[in-house]
């Protein structure tokens, strides 16, 4: 499988495969699977072809015509081909090519490849590459070897390039299959037998040259299994290794800070919060580091669950750190925890509770004196709870006894962070990762498979419903006018509102876009331009603030404090408000250019309203036309507040390869067939087998071929991507 392709298919073809498709060895080519399979006599729906698309179609010659060219000497051959859908396509060949007319006889089937163009309302391919199928005459016998791979009923169509059409790839694959020994099957025979999987050699042959639909299904199932099994083995082995690390147990202590906190909580915990709290408390009491993911809908009460875990660690003599993605959110957590803890956070002050600690905020924007004081509190252990951004891990912050790290949103805990943390603590601390983005079950198994997962699905009592509507600004401008009128009504009723834009904008903005993009669309709306237009126009007279990531940290905090304190009516912001911002009096959000945001982002943004007793309203403003995929996506977001349904939709609309790290790592991936949506059962079964195998052979030392196969499918870059999530 490591044989260079130039030794098998010739230097010229090998060079084309390498430069256009990044295929260098026999193994690279064998794992370059067909994109689809055409069947002779089965239409390929020519009517669905888009102008500008590079296509390969299976079609039948219907008629040919030769006519002189107008602008220059010579003739033009025009061939009309069609399929069973009733669609037709014109093929044009310039110059005197009488031999083509003889070859392209009506009734002949062929594969035709080229770029779709349009001329006088008809779609056509100019000078396409083609290969004819079957019915060779004696004069065509020399071509039989080239097209033998298309002799079967199922014709493989490969991801190709203009310089390397699909039939060239098929011919090269046939050479490799006929001359290179199949790889050793790395899958243990017991797994193959129990899961009824075909052998690897047979699967690779059948996926390229299927003898029937049934055999093709069996081949694809085996190769999908290999992909799922490789990822699951990687994750399960990491989880197994982490469980072997020592950690200091942090058991609950009766009569301590946690009990005092529970007693002063102004509301009752939900059943879900209690159950998840019990799971986390048990993890913290063990001698191995907790690695748990806490997922829950926006507003499901994750922060209180995390705070209770932090208090348990403080009760056990340790410290807890909460890492937030932005300084705005870190500062908000700080204010929120001080309010919840009250005298329990005032150790060393008058009026402090008997069992009290200190809560410190450490951010880059602290003044020198305040920073020195905060770092001294952290280093001495006086500050039991420390809040900040990921800078906490690096910038000279020393803990007396770091026992728990809570990572809030956006950041999965990766290699560098774990290394930095180990340097902060004598032993690895316990880790709790929180996310408000609901994660489909198969993504959780595939990307977060080395973490235990807890889910909060129950909203606390008193949370208000959120109504969402799409505002089609281009089709119905009056609807946008009504939206601003509705916002004024909310403010008149004593409430507040957000207006969210996709871009910051402003003079000298680094990301300043051109007037129109490649598709002819205007640039996304920007906070810097929208805020003054609203202040002078539909929101004239209201108190408007601006918040975005380019503001200095102290200014961001001041704006957020003003909004939270009711000194502003409207906050015009970027997605800096997406995560964790909690202003119960904010009841309305208008998202401008909503089609420029992802499904999960919109769901997160919407969660900023309806956090108090009054109902929430979210208006998704868009110029996307009815029936477009962007509009359908917005309609779906407006139709449900079920984050798990939206997460499935989000996954359907994204390239799944991104989830598995192919795009981010910059390398061609062998993870090609597995669908996180369609193959949920297979992924679950692969995880069960991976757990059983790792328990029996943690290092895969008794399965060297399998270890090598896993390393090939999930290389070091991709394994690290999975670790960082």
Automatic annotation (TrEMBL):
Gene Ontology MF terms: ATP binding; DNA binding; DNA helicase activity; hydrolase activity
Gene3D superfamilies, A to Z: Nucleic acid-binding proteins, P-loop containing nucleotide triphosphate hydrolases
Keyword Thylakoid on entry: no
UniProt protein name: Probable DNA 3'-5' helicase RecG
Domain of life, per lineage: Bacteria
Gene: recG
Domain Helicase C-terminal: residue ranges: 479-652
Entry's Gene Ontology BP terms: DNA repair
One Pfam family named in its UniProt record: RecG_wedge
Keyword Metal-binding tagged: no
Keyword tags: ATP-binding, DNA damage, DNA repair, DNA-binding, Helicase, Hydrolase, Nucleotide-binding
Species per Swiss-Prot/TrEMBL record: Micromonospora sonchi
Ranges for domain Helicase ATP-binding: 283-456
Coiled coil region boundaries: none
CDD domains on file: DEXHc_RecG, RecG_wedge_OBF
